[in-house]
């Protein structure tokens, strides 16, 4: 079966499923994240023995989804897969689903049913599209299942599997703290820094939002290490925020395993990532999410995550969390709302068995 992915988070979350599928899986990458900092450094360690194909590279643009879908359609017509597996809410997910629908093979959507209820987000539009076309919806939580049911998806097409992030974190995490010490700059030690990542367009494409986020980080009580996505570095230069960023320690992003260990040893993590919201619940680290909204309310309800809009006072919220002496210990006792670490086993079994009625009808 074909596993279509395009971004680093997709590879991270699909890797446990691919490993469990073994020889039954072939990974096709669209090249959505073509920067080696984002994808190349993780691919070899996550999927060392799995066949991986790459589509012809494309420039950015709204037309790329259709071009990816065309390439995938031609590919699937030459070698018809038993199913197409996609994960999440990226443009690559839509392209994979379009191609699967064009050739009439089942679509398995991993991480189905997440909703921000904000249609200004391209990801939300992509999620709604998958709800219409997928044959099998692997919902991480019962909240996600309720979202799908409310949109008219039949209950016989939904399985609550848990989220593959639980096993992805457990399998990717590095235990060797010397890696942390080598990555951290001189003068910053384990347990006495804030780890930050900012990369979403709502923060990087608007100078006011970016400036406020960087200002808030610069106001924190402990040193801030900003693992800067290429989009963020370009936005800092473009917006004239270089002097403000100089008040932080700016580093290139580490690979996933090292990032998780860095997050474990940070006093606090500040991010706008969806995946980090989930990872915080697995490893028990406190998180501030800089977003207008989130499709992962479970992390908020469980107390791991605080949502701060791009124009809110990030510094005040984060400093209050830093000054709470019992926060991390409380979080470490709190179970993750994203499952028991067997989501990938369930999804791989679904892919092999085709247990839902829609599967045999496709």
TrEMBL record:
<dbReference type="Pfam" id="PF02350">
    <property type="entry name" value="Epimerase_2"/>
</dbReference>
<protein>
    <submittedName>
        <fullName>UDP-N-acetylglucosamine 2-epimerase (Non-hydrolyzing)</fullName>
        <ecNumber>5.1.3.14</ecNumber>
    </submittedName>
</protein>
<feature type="domain" description="UDP-N-acetylglucosamine 2-epimerase">
    <location>
        <begin position="24"/>
        <end position="350"/>
    </location>
</feature>
<comment type="similarity">
    <text>Belongs to the UDP-N-acetylglucosamine 2-epimerase family.</text>
</comment>
<dbReference type="GO" id="GO:0008761">
    <property type="term" value="F:UDP-N-acetylglucosamine 2-epimerase activity"/>
</dbReference>
<dbReference type="InterPro" id="IPR029767">
    <property type="entry name" value="WecB-like"/>
</dbReference>
<dbReference type="InterPro" id="IPR003331">
    <property type="entry name" value="UDP_GlcNAc_Epimerase_2_dom"/>
</dbReference>
<keyword id="KW-0413">Isomerase</keyword>
């Amino acid at each position: 079966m074909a596993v279509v992915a395009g971004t680093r988070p997709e590879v991270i979350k699909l890797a446990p499923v691919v490993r469990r599928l073994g020889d039954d899986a072939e990974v096709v990458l669209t090249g959505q994240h073509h920067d080696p900092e984002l994808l190349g450094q993780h691919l070899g360690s996550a999927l060392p023995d799995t066949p991986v194909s790459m589509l012809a590279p494309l420039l950015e643009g709204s037309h790329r989804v259709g071009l990816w879908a065309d390439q995938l359609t031609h590919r699937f017509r030459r070698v018809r897969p038993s199913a197409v597996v996609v994960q999440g809410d990226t443009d690559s997910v839509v392209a994979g689903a379009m191609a699967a629908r064009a050739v009439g093979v089942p679509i398995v959507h991993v991480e189905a049913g997440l909703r921000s209820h904000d249609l200004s987000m391209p990801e939300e539009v992509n999620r709604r599209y998958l709800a219409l076309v997928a044959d099998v919806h692997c919902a991480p939580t019962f909240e996600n299942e309720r979202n799908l049911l409310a949109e008219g998806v039949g209950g016989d097409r939904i399985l609550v599997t848990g989220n593959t992030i639980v096993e992805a974190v457990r399998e990717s995490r590095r235990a060797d703290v010397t890696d942390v010490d080598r990555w951290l700059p001189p003068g910053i030690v384990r347990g006495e820094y804030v780890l930050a990542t900012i990369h979403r367009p709502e923060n990087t494409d608007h100078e006011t939002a970016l400036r406020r986020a960087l200002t808030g980080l610069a106001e924190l009580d402990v040193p801030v290490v900003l693992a800067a996505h290429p989009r963020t570095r370009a936005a800092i230069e473009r917006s004239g925020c270089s002097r403000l960023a100089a008040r932080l320690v700016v580093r290139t992003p580490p690979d996933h395993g090292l990032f998780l260990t860095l997050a474990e040893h940070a006093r606090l993590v500040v991010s706008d990532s969806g995946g980090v919201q989930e990872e915080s619940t697995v490893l028990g680290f406190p998180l501030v999410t800089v977003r207008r909204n989130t499709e992962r309310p479970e992390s908020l309800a469980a107390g791991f995550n605080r949502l701060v809009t791009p124009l809110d006072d990030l510094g005040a919220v984060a400093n209050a969390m830093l000054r709470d002496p019992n926060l991390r210990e409380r979080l470490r006792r709190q179970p993750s709302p994203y499952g028991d670490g067997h989501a990938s086993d369930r999804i791989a079994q679904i892919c092999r068995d085709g247990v839902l009625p829609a599967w045999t009808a496709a």
